[in-house]
Amino acid sequence: MTEQTPHTPPEPDEHPRNVLDRAIIKVSHLLSWLFIATVFISFYEVVMRYLFDSPTTWVHETASFIGGSLFIIGGIYAFAANRHVRVVLIYDAVSSQTRKYLNLVHHLVGLAFASMLAYSSYSLAKEAWFAPWGELRLETSGSVLNAPYPALLKGLIFIALCILVIQFVLHLIQELMGLRNKDDV
Fold this sequence. Notes:
This protein is mostly helical. It is built from 6 helices and no strands. The longest helix is centred in the C-terminal third of the chain and has 36 residues. The N terminus is likely disordered. It has one domain. Part of the tripartite ATP-independent periplasmic (TRAP) transport system. It holds the Pfam family DctQ. It is a multi-pass membrane protein. Belongs to the TRAP transporter small permease family.
């Protein structure tokens, strides 16, 4: 009788797959320092409000904008670093060849979904950036600060989704090349 070894799940790929992934990871690491800036400006707000009884009008919206922007970028970072969510119950239980086909399905479905989201986000960003007559007019928050953060976030969502579509295309090409190379052997 042969002794069976328990199946060990695959380790996530630690290396970016292409130049775009490398750039996203590098830029994301730099932008992650903005989380610290958010902590500092939030601390500033607490000090001003509770020690000097002089609350700010800009900290809450600015901190929310920075945090929201970083979370949007976090989506393309997770995909670039291969840290996205997958159903490991199925993925880890199948052979490496089957994983390649699951990756192919994942990239096809993801490409379709990201493309539809990018298309939808375009109309939201366009409405947030331009008046109905075509003049540039950024949507603002409507608060005392009245910053153009809503328009900037909608534009960032559109850009991030366009990048995600490109990522899916590049990853799909790599998956197809990997299948072709395996089938040729």
